[in-house]
Write a structure and sequence with these properties.
The protein is mainly α and 174 residues long. Helix content is 71%, strand content 0%. The chain has seven helices and no strands. It starts with 10 loop residues before the first helix and ends with a helix.
Length: 174
């Protein structure tokens, strides 16, 4: 009589990668959200989500790059949740005209980070995915769960909000 083979838990591959991937995932999240507590929570969610995902039948191979992708999704999920909460509290609809904004000025990195942190989560998510992560508009739309045209409009409003806040901050810092 042959013994049934026990399939090893695929999460063990993740465990072997944990120590080297943890600082990469945490650093990725911290650099995009700027909040240590949030980055720690999202890092934890990333690894818990990765354990569940790698146990699925057709899971991709576990790697640091794959974990960064999971982290990107967790961060986008966070921003969507936060936007839904804020949208529930907002009564006024932001209606800005859609215009092309070719802003060629040099940006101060610290001021830009502060301004980005001050924006609403929907604007911060769109700008981070588009300009920090370098994703195309269709990819940003996919991460945010929006259509391409709605994402383009969101990016126009987000750039305008960023520019206003950046220039206001510049006026106060001068």
């Amino acid at each position: 009589m042959t013994e049934p083979r026990v399939r090893p838990d695929p999460a063990f591959a993740l465990l072997g990668l944990y120590e080297t991937a943890l600082p990469e995932v945490y650093g990725y999240l911290l650099s995009r959200c700027g909040d240590r507590t949030l980055a720690e929570e999202l890092t934890s969610e990333t690894f818990l989500g990765a354990v569940a995902a790698c146990r699925k039948e057709y899971a991709p191979p576990v790697s640091t790059g794959w974990l960064i992708g999971v982290a990107r999704h967790k961060l986008a999920d966070h921003w969507r949740r936060k936007e839904r909460e804020e949208r529930g509290l907002r009564l006024v609809h932001d209606s800005e005209p859609d215009v092309e904004d070719p802003w060629d000025e040099q940006l101060d990195a610290l001021r830009a980070r502060q301004v980005l942190d001050s924006l609403g989560p929907h604007h911060r998510a769109a700008l981070t995915l588009r300009y920090v992560d370098g994703l195309g508009v269709p990819e940003v739309a996919g991460h945010l769960g929006r259509g391409v045209h709605a994402t383009e409009a969101l990016l126009v409003r987000a750039r305008a909000a960023f520019r206003r806040a950046y220039e206001e901050k510049e006026g106060r810092d001068a």
